[in-house]
Specification:
GO molecular function, one term: metal ion binding
Strand order of the largest sheet: 5-6-4-3-19-1-7-17-2-18
Subcellular location: Cell membrane; Extracellular vesicle membrane
Mean pLDDT: 85
CATH architecture of the largest domain: 3-Layer(aba) Sandwich
Catalytic activity: diphosphate + H2O = 2 phosphate + H(+); phosphoethanolamine + H2O = ethanolamine + phosphate; a phosphate monoester + H2O = an alcohol + phosphate; ATP + H2O = ADP + phosphate + H(+)
Largest sheet: 10 strands, mixed
Cofactor: Ca(2+); Mg(2+); Zn(2+)
Low-confidence stretches: 1-12, 295-317, 319-329, 395-419, 528-538
Structural class: alpha/beta
GO biological process, one term: biomineral tissue development
Number of domains: 2
Number of strands: 19
Helix content: 10-25%
């Protein structure tokens, strides 16, 4: 009888989690009909030539991360979460991209960056080169360089920018401008003697020399730009932030030296300096924080992320680029590698805020925006959690009082319903609770007294909590499944179905009439947006997070 009562109480409590309007079948029918009307409107294809291209790249933002971030976003707005929409969810076209590298079933960020930026699949650990290059082998690089969509845009005289919340020399952004047999050759201080003797250039040097007229570069990793042991401008006493260059060059000065006479080039290393700039009077901007921009407390900002800006300034200077940079989230990948799902998911929500800002400042009639990931992670959440269950457990809901019985019955309900963040059951093997968020491998594997750690005894809502994993590793690994591609704007319908990841920049270039495939640009039926008077103002902005 007691078991029956507990089960009934549990069912009553779970039923209370359902919003009243969702109990009415007409709610779901009307929602479906609205979605159908939206889908029918998509039959009128937007075949304009894209004046602007924006690529948002969530590093490590697999499908499970997107779903969990959606729930988190809703719960941060005091909603249940599952019914919420991310900004990327509002994009009308969605595809899947296959992420494998040419020599790896489960990819790394370097080979994937070469795919979605250069349009060519490559070996893991290499950036901006074909699969003919072997990692660490400088002598295999010559003649195997491949160019990126950023280069294609510059070759047509377009304005371009890179904004990243990692180092600007990290594998993810570096494929836009560099060609390297090793993603870790940030400066010549990280390169082996045979690579230096073979004439290979470090990635920071290539940032300055390969495409010197990139209008906007924002990210971290300034130590790779300065001579070895040079003190950092912000942290002069900290050895780990000192310069690393063996050639003794100051690449920030070299960056300034490459700019044409009469053009204004500004270097900033702190958020306050960025906010103080009048971007309409700046032609080139380089901003670098110390390492990767520091991870914030949840819902915080980054070193280079000001609050949402006012409407963009009139054309001139960097006005055309000023609207889309602020508000980027990032380091989703880093959070997952450390098993810190809370950090990873808050980062994904921050990235989504940037996507929403860019959507408000641009028009889908002339701007193609694409959101995707380079790869996934072995991150998952499950365990039959009830609707609206706080995904991390920050705000435990009060259990509803039963409509009948003695108040003393309420604690019994808690033996059936989960604590927030926990699955609503115990393991039927070790009889211990478990969190809904878990990793397939990683640093969260913990044995206490010869058994799996009892998570109810730890603060699993803490920002630095490392979720339990099935296999112990110092760093959690990437996942090998496909990632989502969201698209909005001119020719967005070209991103559909299941694609090889290297297809993405080809579709974007086709939309903007840049790159090698431009025979269609003068075809009948393309709108006036294709006018040569408009195309020179095209912007390509890569937001790599």
């Amino acid at each position: 009888m007691k078991a029956f009562l507990l089960t009934l109480l549990a069912q009553l409590c779970l039923a209370s989690l359902v919003p009243e309007n969702e109990k009415d079948p007409e709610y779901w029918r009307q929602q479906a009909q609205e979605t159908l009307r939206d889908a029918l409107r998509l039959q009128r294809l937007n075949q304009n030539v894209a004046k602007n291209l924006i690529l948002f790249l969530g590093d490590g933002m697999g499908v499970s991360t997107v779903t969990a971030a959606r729930i988190l976003k809703g719960q941060l707005q005091n909603r249940k979460g599952e019914e919420s929409l991310l900004e990327m969810d509002k994009f009308p076209y969605v595809a899947l991209a296959k992420t494998y590298n040419t020599n790896a079933q489960v990819p790394d960020s370097a080979g994937t960056a070469t795919a979605y930026l250069c349009g060519v699949k490559a070996n893991e650990g290499t950036v901006g080169v074909s699969a003919g290059v072997t990692r660490d082998r400088c002598n295999t690089t010559k003649g195997q360089e491949v160019t990126s969509i950023l280069r294609w845009a510059k070759d047509e005289g377009k304005a371009v920018g890179i904004v990243t919340t990692t180092r600007v020399t990290h594998a993810t952004p570096s494929a836009a401008y560099a060609h390297s047999a090793n993603r870790d050759w940030y400066s010549d201080g990280e390169m082996p003697p045979d690579a230096l003797e073979g004439g290979c250039k470090d990635i920071a040097r290539q940032l300055v020399e390969n495409i010197p007229d990139i209008e906007v570069i924002l990210g971290g990793g300034r130590k790779y730009m300065f001579p070895k042991n040079a003190s950092d401008v912000e942290y002069p006493q900290e050895e780990k932030h000192r310069g690393t260059r063996l050639d003794r060059r100051d690449l920030v000065q070299a960056w300034h030296d490459t700019k044409p006479p009469g053009k204004v080039a500004k270097y900033v290393w702190h958020r306050r300096d960025l906010l103080a700039l009048n971007l309409s009077r700046v032609d080139f901007l380089l901003g670098e924080s110390r390492g990767a921009p520091r991870p914030p407390a949840p819902r915080g900002g980054w070193d280079f992320c000001p609050p949402p800006p006012p409407p963009p300034p009139p054309p001139g200077g960097l006005g055309v680029l000023s609207g889309a940079g602020p508000g980027t989230g990032g380091r989703i990948d880093h959070g997952h590698h450390e098993g810190k799902a809370k950090q990873a998911l808050h980062e994904a929500v921050e990235l989504d805020r940037a996507i929403g800002l860019a959507a408000r400042l641009t028009s889908p009639q002339d701007t193609l925006s694409v959101v995707t990931a380079d790869h996934s992670h072995v991150f998952t959440f499950g365990g039959y959690t009830p609707r609206g269950n706080p995904i991390f457990g920050e705000t435990p809901p009060s259990p509803p009082a039963p409509a009948w019985g003695h108040p003393g019955d309420v604690p019994a309900v808690l033996t059936v319903l989960p604590l927030p963040g926990l699955a609503p059951m115990q393991s039927d093997v070790d009889r211990k609770p478990f969190t809904s968020i878990l990793y397939g491998n990683g640093p969260g594997y913990k044995i206490v007294g010869g058994e799996r750690e009892n998570v109810s005894a730890v603060d699993f809502a803490h920002a630095n909590y490392q979720a339990q994993s099935a296999v112990p590793l110092r760093q959690e690994t990437h996942g090998g499944e496909d990632v989502a591609v969201f698209a909005r704007g001119p020719m967005a319908h070209l991103l559909h179905g299941v694609h090889e990841q290297n297809y993405i920049p080809h579709a974007m270039a086709y939309a903007a009439c840049i790159g090698p495939n431009r025979a269609h640009c003068n075809a009948a039926g393309r709108t006036a947006t294709a006018s040569p008077l408009l195309l020179p103002f095209l912007t390509l902005l890569l937001l790599l997070c």
